[in-house]
UniProtKB/TrEMBL annotation:
Record organism: Cytobacillus oceanisediminis
GO molecular function per UniProt: protein-macromolecule adaptor activity
Protein name: Adapter protein MecA
Assembly, per entry: Homodimer.
BP GO annotations: establishment of competence for transformation; negative regulation of establishment of competence for transformation; negative regulation of sporulation resulting in formation of a cellular spore; sporulation resulting in formation of a cellular spore
Keywords on record: Competence, Sporulation
Ribosomal protein listed as a keyword: no
Domain notes from UniProt: The N-terminal domain has binding sites for ComK and probably for unfolded/aggregated proteins; the C-terminal domain interacts with ClpC.
Function recorded in the entry: Enables the recognition and targeting of unfolded and aggregated proteins to the ClpC protease or to other proteins involved in proteolysis. Acts negatively in the development of competence by binding ComK and recruiting it to the ClpCP protease. When overexpressed, inhibits sporulation. Also involved in Spx degradation by ClpC.
Homology family: Belongs to the MecA family.
Amino acid sequence: MEIERINDHTVKFYISYLDIEERGFDREEIWYNRERSEELFWEMMDEVHQEEEFLVEGPLWIQVQALDKGLEVLVTKAQLSKDGQKFELPVPDEKVKDLPVDEHIEDMLDHHFRKSDDDDEGYEGDLEFLLTFKDFEDIISLSKRTNLDAINTKLYSFEGKYYLFAEFPEDFFEEDDIDNMLSILLEYGQETSTTIHRIVEYGKLIIEENVFEHLRKHFK
């Protein structure tokens, strides 16, 4: 895979169909199987992170160009505008205006990594976060913090790490409450680029619900 770092916020990489197949993916399934295309994407992003130290955090804008022998992918991290009201693309227009986007794979990636303009308008739904912890003791310590039991939680293990899925029902929490609780969660864990779909499929479910309450019962 060929990787080009454009700036602090944007990276472009090219992967051939042969490389895709050598990674265990069928050329056809990346167009029509959403979960497999997502798995391939994050596998490529892990490689980008290792080679270019490109840390994925927050919303991403993804553009994919299907070439004769492979895919060219442009990934840009969004930034809040100066007034803090909306996300902006921190990349010059000339860098992206000539990149046609293949609609099939864009639709698949869109579903998980960004909302369309239509979705943004009047969008309602629960806020979901996935955090990773290197040490189980950190999760135990977190469980002893107050006012977190109202969060819908699940705990998983995957590849030697622990993953906490946290869901904030929109009709139950105010925005300030979510900000405060999320800041507490991030004192002990960190956000991850791994998706909950991958964790559910390949990880092990440790605690199905009420993670903090469950841990307090077993770890005084």
